[in-house]
Amino acid sequence: MTQIEVSFDEKTLREVLLGDRGAEMLLEKVMNQVLQAEMTEHLGAKPGEQTDERRGYRNGTYERQLTTRIGQLKLEVPRDREGTFRTELFERYQRSEKALVTTLMQMVLQGVSTRRVKKITTELCGREFSRQTVSNLTEKLDEQVQAWAERPLEEEYPFLLADAMQLKVRRQGAVRSTTAMIVVGISEEGYREILGFKIALRETGESWKELFESLKERGLRGVEFAVSDAHEGLEKALRACFPGCIWNRCQAHFQRNVLDKTPSECHDQMKDLLDRVLEADSQQEAIRRFEEGAEELREEASDAMETLQDGLFDATAVLALPEKYHRWLRTTNMLERLIQEVRRREKVIRIFPNKDSAWRLVGALLAEKHEEWSTSRRYLKTDEFYEWLDRKSESDPEDIHSEPTNRTLQPA
Prior knowledge:
The chain is an alpha/beta fold. It has helices at 10-18, 22-43, 91-109, 115-125, 131-149, 205-217, 232-241, 251-260, 267-278, 283-294, 302-315, 326-329, 333-349, 355-374, 383-395, and strands at 58-68, 71-80, 159-171, 174-186, 192-200, 225-228, 246-249.
């Protein structure tokens, strides 16, 4: 979309600053101007402008209410004579809002709501809503989330990140811990994408394997490097589903694991050793630094040193890649931040009324984040990685598991 300039007249600015609807009015004004800019781009001409590129004419507007967490907005959605204009400006935003609201509504209907939940649903949905209303909303939302979750994966994804979060879901008459497993990929063009997710009763190797196999059925291929925590089932599932790929143990998780077993009086010394080891530019150098600083900590922090020694090779696997990728692929921090964004919305619910509502809300939030990532700037350039991979293939063909593909290298 072309860049637009949002302007405010003196009356609007005064109402924003002094009135009771300041934030709502500001957002309302911005979104209405963006809608008009979308129509201009759709028609190829401003109101009253005559150009050779014009593709139609305006036909007034219609009013649309949009309920948000800061209040209800009144949008003036433009129409064209042919009826071809469609906007996704607030449709994408509303998807997660609807998922949140329908979950709250389900909680009320099942009699597990609090006064706070009832107040929210009254404000967002009106004073009354029926089971049929909830059914209609969930059916449409389920279709949208399902379509996104089952979309074909048409590119190669050389880099994979996997992690899980715990949710509280009411099942079998009790509140039980339930797992949301999430997989993020970085495409051959260098864009981040949320490839898929799964709501499982427990985080097991089998549940991870089912998720990875479903991604492969949708077209996932070309995985050369994966990073995750040291969950035994997850590691085994990655190695089984993507044989030959490099697996890196997330360094952030690894550091926490080691420091958790370190006596408090040795924390600073252990942290310094971890920093020196993990900042090495090769595995050989990491091992040398470990051996150099390990002796003085072996007796005082024996359990921590054993954890450090056992996990050192896997936590430094990323050092086999070209140096420019070390920073971006040594941890799952990017995925951790994504989980924190989901967590902020999930906290409104606290306890999901059923497994389907958890799938719906998490899926809607992930779908929106995926769209944001895939339409924003490229996360990293992959040209140097593929050049390194080709050189490795030429020097040791048996060490490369993937079949040759036609790749267009990106400019450095």
